[in-house]
Each structure stands twice: as structure tokens, then as C-alpha cells.
Amino acid sequence: MKVIVDMDVCKDHGQCVFAAPEVFQLNDSGRLVYESDVDEALRDAVEEAADVCPLQAITVEG
Questions:
Q1: pLDDT at position 59, please?
Q2: What is the CA radius of gyration of the chain?
Q3: Counting Cβ atoms within 10 Å, is residue 9 exposed (0-12), middle (13-18) or buried (19+)?
Q4: What residues contact residue 57 under an 8 Å CB cut-off, 6+ apart?
Q5: How far is 27 from 22, CA to CA, in rounded Å?
Q6: Residue 11's Cα: distance from chain center in Å?
Q7: Confidence at residue 5, expressed as pLDDT on a 0 to 100 scale
Q8: CA 56 to chain CA centroid, nearest Å
Q9: How confident is the model at residue 44 (pLDDT cuts 50, 70, 90)?
Q10: What one-character-per-residue DSSP string does 7-20 give?
Q11: Taking phi first (over 0 means left), then psi (-120 to 50 degrees means alpha), and beta for anything else, what does residue 55 get?
């Protein structure tokens, strides 16, 4: 499964971090970092993260 975050849209609110901390983190500067190639076992958490993103910046493919 591929995770894509449009970093031009993302404003680092961090809601995705709460939904899927295995995939999304905020770095020391408060900027979002994430894994783009994610195991299928994390699909529910990643889809939840995409749903709770206030700017809908997260796309899940595959």
C-alpha cells in the first residue's frame, strides 16, 4: 500500500499521528514525516488517518 501526503496542502495539524503513529510522526521541528510504503496490516489505521486529516492531504493507493 502506498501513502501519499500532499505536503503543499498539509499544515502539520498532526491528527494523522494520533490515528496511525506507526506511519506518521512529527519531527523535532514539528513537521510531518511519514512512511510511504506501508504494510497492508496498517490499512485501517492509515485510512482513519486520511479521514481525520482536516485538510484531506492524505491519499492511500493500492
A1: 98
A2: 10
A3: exposed
A4: 5, 6, 7, 9, 10
A5: 14
A6: 12
A7: 98
A8: 10
A9: very high
A10: TTT-----HHHHH-
A11: alpha
End-to-end CA distance of the chain: 5
Percent share of the chain, pLDDT over 90: 100
pLDDT tens for 18-31 read 999 999 999 999 99
At 57, the pLDDT band (50, 70, 90 cuts) reads very high
Write down the pTM of the prediction.
0.94
Name the DSSP class of 41: G
User: Are residues 46 and 38 in contact, defined by beta-carbon separation less than 8 angstroms?
Assistant: yes
> Do the Cβ atoms of 59 and 4 come closer than 8 Å?
yes
Question: Among the residues of 1-62, which ranges form H helices?
Answer: 15-19, 43-52
